[in-house]
């Protein structure tokens, strides 16, 4: 493996050409596969909706979704800083900015009445801080690992999974593949 490929695999961007504000729209198949495994419940909030990639598919499946984002990318209510919000919802679902994944998850624990469903790197499972503040809560119910790498407009070198947290759950997570 070339050095640049190895660095990209672990999330390093040697060319310093990361998308502005860590904006990587979710591939359509990512949400379609999740919806084969999970039924969304109650008021649904897509809190980092970007261009609506997730919200549009969720709506096509018959759900009503409140979509917001801090940055205007042509979809949803804009100017909403999720990390400063006090809005509550039954289910919070998003593909968070990867550089703020921990902060988004902790805020979602505060704002969600029940479910938090995030698309994230598989390596999100690593880390002492996340283990203590997120995973030791016992809320992580399901981890759906993508068998085939998702492509966010690039080469798809990183492994991704859906993380499904249920605030009424207290146990070990189930790991499954999609």
Care to describe what's here?
The protein is 22% helix and 24% strand. It is an alpha/beta fold and 178 residues long. Strands 3-2-1-4-5-7-6-8 form an eight-stranded mixed beta sheet. β1, α3 and β2 form a beta-alpha-beta unit. The longest helix has 11 residues. The protein is globular. The chain starts with a helix and ends with a strand. The N terminus is likely disordered.
Could you name the ranges where pLDDT drops below 50 across 5 or more consecutive residues? 3-18
The CATH topology is given as Rossmann fold
Largest sheet: 8 strands, mixed
How far from one another are the termini? 26 Å
The CATH architecture can be given as: 3-Layer(aba) Sandwich
Overall average pLDDT = 90
The 3D shape can be described as globular
Structural class given helices, strands, pairing?
alpha/beta
Number of domains: 1
Helix count, per DSSP? 5
Number of strands: 8
Rg calculated over all Cα atoms: 16 Å
List keywords for this structure.
8-stranded mixed beta sheet; globular; 178 residues; alpha/beta; Rossmann fold; 22% helix
Map the helices and strands.
Blueprint: H1 3-9, H2 28-35, E1 44-46, H3 53-60, E2 65-69, E3 77-78, E4 89-94, H4 101-111, E5 112-121, H5 128-133, E6 140-145, E7 160-166, E8 174-177
Helix pairs in contact: 2-3
């Amino acid at each position: 493996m070339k050095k640049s490929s190895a660095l990209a695999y672990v999330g390093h961007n040697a060319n310093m050409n990361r998308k502005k504000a860590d904006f990587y729209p979710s591939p359509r198949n990512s949400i379609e596969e999740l919806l084969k495994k999970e039924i969304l419940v109650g008021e649904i909030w897509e809190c980092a909706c970007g261009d609506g990639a997730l919200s549009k598919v969720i709506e096509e499946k018959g759900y009503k979704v409140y979509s917001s984002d801090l940055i205007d990318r042509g979809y949803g209510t804009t100017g909403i800083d999720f990390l400063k919000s006090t809005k509550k919802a039954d289910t919070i679902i998003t593909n968070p900015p990867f550089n703020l994944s921990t902060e988004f998850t902790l805020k979602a624990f505060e704002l969600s009445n029940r479910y938090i469903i995030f698309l994230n790197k598989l390596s999100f499972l690593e880390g002492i801080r996340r283990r203590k503040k997120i995973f030791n809560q016992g809320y992580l119910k399901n981890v759906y690992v993508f068998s085939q790498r998702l492509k966010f407009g690039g080469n798809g070198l990183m492994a991704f999974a859906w993380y499904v947290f249920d605030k009424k759950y207290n146990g070990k997570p189930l790991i499954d593949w999609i």
